[in-house]
């Protein structure tokens, strides 16, 4: 196992209410709050993981999904190493909005459409009985959009949450050599990570 931990900036995106904050809190603190409030702007938490013997600090940026907070979240896309696009199983519209979220991310992260980038798709709230997106439909969307790994999760019942986050790191490792490195990303990433390390939790509005 190597000693030093590599910082990975992970951005969680998706419609308001799909469970992004709940997924982050389940993964980082193993907690679930059924009264979770809408995020305003962006919040982040750090979590250390070891994948294939290498140490990483995942700096997870939980963004506000509601349209009215768009201008507060988009400045934080730059420097991302991984993007986790999230929808809710019981909300077809949140699945149909995935291409919009992907476009928004690529545009504000300043990554060219079609460039290799580690995306992960999460279908959250798999515990809900009223499912509106089938496994087949979700999987074929992921295949069509670059064989993106897909996980059906429940922050509530703690299903596949840890697996999804650690697989995101594996996806990053697979693609690391192909990623487009831009000076501007590196600079922003360093600035933001310094801020994260000094405060641990942040909220930017
Ligand atoms: N049944 C069920 N409910 C969940 C799950 N994850 C989150 N919720 C609930 O869904 C609601 C919204 O969850 P949040 O985590 O606040 O959603 P969000 O995507 O962060 O929302 P924004 O901050 O508005 O972008 C809350 O009432 C959660 O308790 C899940 O896996 N299953």
Draw up the topology in text.
Layout: E1 6-14, H1 20-29, E2 42-51, E3 54-63, H2 70-73, E4 82-88, H3 92-96, H4 98-109, E5 119-124, H5 135-144, E6 150-152, H6 161-175, H7 183-199, E7 202-204
Parallel strand pairs: 1-3, 1-4, 4-5, 5-6
Antiparallel strand pairs: 2-3, 2-7
Bound molecules: guanosine-5'-triphosphate.
Residues 14, 16-22, 34, 36, 38-39, 64-66, 124-125, 127-128, 154-156 line the site of guanosine-5'-triphosphate (GTP).
Structure description:
The protein is of the alpha/beta class and 205 residues long. The chain is 36% helix and 23% strand. A hairpin with a 2-residue loop joins strand 2 (42-51) and strand 3. The termini are far apart. The model is unreliable at 182-205 (pLDDT under 50). Bound molecules: guanosine-5'-triphosphate. Residues 14, 16-22, 34, 36, 38-39, 64-66, 124-125, 127-128, 154-156 line the site of guanosine-5'-triphosphate.
**Unreliable segments of 5+ consecutive residues:** 182-205
Sequence of secondary-structure elements = EHEEHEHHEHEHHE
Percent in helix: 25-40%
Strand content: 15-25%
* Number of strand segments: 7
Mean pLDDT reading: 88
Number of helical stretches of at least 4 residues: 7
Rg, rounded, reads 16 Å
* Ligands present: guanosine-5'-triphosphate
* Shape label: globular
Structural class comes to alpha/beta
Largest sheet: 7 strands, mixed
Write out the strand line-up for the largest beta sheet, numbering strands in chain order: 6-5-4-1-3-2-7
How far apart, in Å, are the first and last alpha carbons? 39 Å
Assembly type: single chain
